[in-house]
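Q: What would this chain look like folded?
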Amino acid sequence: MQRLRVKFSRGGELKFISHLDIMRLWERALRRARIKLAYSEGFNPRPRVSLAAPLAVGITSEAELMDIFVNGTISPHWFTSSVSRQLPPGIEISTVYQIAGNLPSLQSQVRFAEYTVLVNKELGQDEMKTAISGLLSLEKLPWSHLRDTGKRSYDLRALIDNIQLVDSDDNCYTVSMRLRCDNSGSGRPEQVTLALGLTDYPVSVHRTRLILNS
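A: My prediction, written as structure tokens:
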């Protein structure tokens, strides 16, 4: 059995597709490419295909990671060539490489996610810088928002590793964020922009990197 790690991008064409539909899309593409997937054991065997961290609806990415277990051995180059022909516009494989099969699960290795967030200029540049430094200076920030399962309360500050104002044009700021993304919680860029005092939903959110523990 072979374990392949796939890095791929997800563009605007598919940013409103749910995590479940993305998994179905990948499984369909892998079957059509005649990849001999390994399956889990038990009463309901499933292909051993897993994403590092589900991408929220409405977000694009250049840094998605996925582990695939296959029966036999195939070359990463052949995998890329065969599977790419079966993928729809909006998904592009950038790299594929083999990793040790006994490594911990991909999901358990993720520690942080980095984002580039475009926001409307609701604050002046000095006010924006002050809002960022003020948020980063906090030790705690009690926060809550409604989810499908009800109200969730947590410490938003604990989910923020860093925020930087990186660019500005006539209408928008470009903000980079490094947010926690592990079993203790996952930071959400739109919640961070609210905490900065911005009321408009971000113009765009793009995930640029997933950071795994070493």
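Helices lie at 19-32, 76-84, 106-109, 125-137, 189-195.
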